[in-house]
Write a structure and sequence with these properties.
Helices cover 36% and strands 11% of the residues. It is of the alpha/beta class.
Length: 409
């Protein structure tokens, strides 16, 4: 019987949690990339870790490396057998970029993510453990020499550029510097960067100006003006605006790019609701609902718009976010509840108005993740992960345009 990834996953997980995260990353990357030149980057370390497993894990004693290399990927999203292009996935989160690019025929040859919970979700869906902190040289050393596209949803940070020209060196100490450094070293054909809408005006516009100066002048890439792209225009009922920045290496002779046109498709949150009655744990207690109403009333009396919000079924959701009022800004009315007995400790009773939070699966759908995507963490972690993720359909539509210019579609 062919060895399945699920047969060895638990043993790899134990080793990863015991401090061997990058060891597991090298092995899973090696197995995933064995038919590509990029496998050479991981081969030595993967074999060393495999030998360690054979010595210390009885279940690995009879598993040959050849057996491992013919493994069956019993996961929701295996890599394409005949990839059209290669890419790397930085600040990978739970794999929104990867899912979009794989849908277009891409093969991920390196991924990194520092959050352990996000790593678990990523690995459960793609059978690849991301490497850790991308600011470390030890992590960057595992990036294969060549790949076609760099993808990164890097965090927004200010630069210390007072009195300086705002170039490559002035971004040191920020995560954008690490992205720029990787582009400089590896010279991919193209890159696709994603960030919050506020990047446009961050530090009075100086942050974005510096980023574009580095990409265009220091790194010598053709970079069209960035675009604010809204997820609601690409088939998901969420008002989520993000800034997209794409670029092509100038020697390729590409001097034009058009971001995708919005789809002419009506969307509404009722399209992503759970099909069956959900657990009572998602329904607000009367006491908590009273607290939310009082909180909103206090802010309204001051002329502020803060507070909870119930989204009409035929409308679209506010942007899902990882903290604060993220869930409370996207409450819905669902009157299908039949059992009002609490399953968690709450103050008061379960409200009879049908007011509940969206479930993690509904948040996944708001971000364009298919229902086959595995949610293997707590609700708290799942909300955080989907709130931090990219909206897959918007990424995919833009990536498709980017690849068309490279003749990789």
């Amino acid at each position: 019987m062919k060895l399945r990834y699920s047969d060895i996953r638990k043993h790899l997980r134990v080793n990863r949690l015991n401090g061997s995260a990058d060891n597991v990353a090298t092995l899973t990357h090696y197995l995933q990339n064995q038919d590509l030149e990029s496998s050479a980057t991981y081969e030595q370390y993967a074999h060393s870790f495999y030998e360690e497993l054979q010595r210390n894990v009885p279940e690995f004693g009879d598993i040959s490396m050849q057996h491992l290399k013919s493994i069956k990927w019993d996961i929701p999203f295996p890599s394409p057998d005949r990839p059209k292009f290669t890419f790397i996935d930085l600040f990978a989160g739970i794999g929104g970029f990867r899912l979009a690019c794989q849908n277009l025929g891409g093969k991920c040859v390196f991924t990194s993510e520092w959050n352990e919970s996000a790593k678990s979700t990523y690995e459960a869906n793609f059978a690849e453990v991301p490497f850790g902190d991308i600011t470390k040289e030890s992590t960057k050393a595992f990036i294969p020499k060549q790949f076609d596209v760099l993808c990164a949803g890097f965090p927004c940070q200010a630069f210390s550029i007072a009195g300086k020209r705002g170039g490559f060196e002035d971004t040191r100490g920020t995560l954008f510097f690490d992205v720029a450094e990787i582009i400089k070293r590896h010279q991919p054909k193209a890159f696709f960067l994603e960030n919050v809408k506020g990047l446009r005006n961050h530090d009075k516009g100086r942050t974005l100006t510096t980023i574009l100066n580095v990409l265009r002048n220091d790194l010598n890439y053709f970079v069209p003006d960035p675009e604010i792209v809204n997820a609601k225009n690409f088939g998901v009922p969420q008002n989520r605006e993000r800034i997209f920045i794409v670029g092509y290496r100038k020697d390729l002779g590409i001097d034009r790019f058009e971001y995708p046109e919005p789809l002419d498709e009506p969307v509404a949150i009722e399209d992503i609701f759970e099909e069956e009655e959900v657990s009572v744990k998602y329904y607000l207690s009367t006491q908590y609902l009273k607290t939310l109403k009082e909180h909103k009333a206090r802010h309204e009396s001051k002329g502020n718009g803060f507070g909870f919000e119930i989204i009409p079924n035929d409308s679209i959701a506010n942007a899902v976010v990882c903290g604060g009022m993220g869930r409370e800004r996207n409450l819905i009315i669902d009157n299908r509840l039949t059992n009002f007995t609490p399953v968690t400790k709450i103050k008061g009773e379960v409200n009879r108005e049908g007011i509940r939070k969206m479930t993690p699966r509904e948040w996944a759908r708001l971000q364009g993740f298919p229902d086959t995507y595995r949610i293997c963490v707590s609700d708290v972690q799942a909300y955080r992960q989907f709130g931090n993720s990219v909206a897959v359909p918007a990424i995919q539509a833009t990536a498709e345009k980017l690849l068309e210019q490279l003749n990789l579609q």
